[in-house]
């Protein structure tokens, strides 16, 4: 369970960071007009969906990983 938790936490943080930085960059190029606080809140949505996807992945793929793909034979 510890390996799964670390895997899911890494994926969630990476998703949040990518979404947040993407929103800030888009705002910098005048593609959107949102504040940094709103960007932080909006970036939490894909991060939350990553947690849900990781939970679903325990029933589909390797239960020790947040990946949906089946574990490769060793």
Secondary-structure-derived class: mainly alpha
- Overall outline: elongated
Output mean pLDDT: 84
Strand tally is 0
- N-to-C SSE string, H for helix and E for strand: HH
**How many alpha or pi helices?**
2
Distance between the termini: 20 Å
Strand residue content: under 5%
The major beta sheet can be summarized as: none
Oligomer: single chain
List unreliable stretches of 5+ residues: none
Rg over CA atoms, rounded to whole Å, is 15 Å
The percent range for helix content is over 70%
Throw out a few tags for this protein.
74 residues
Give a structural overview:
This protein has 74 residues and is mainly alpha-helical. It has a domain at 32-58. The protein contains 2 helices and no strands. It has helices spanning 2-28, 36-60. Helix 1 runs antiparallel to helix 2 (36-60). It is elongated, with a radius of gyration of 15 Å. 12% of the residues are buried. The mean pLDDT is 84.
How do you describe this structure in short?
The chain is mainly α.
Q: How is the topology of this model organized?
A:
Elements: H1 2-28, H2 36-60
Helix pairs in contact: 1-2
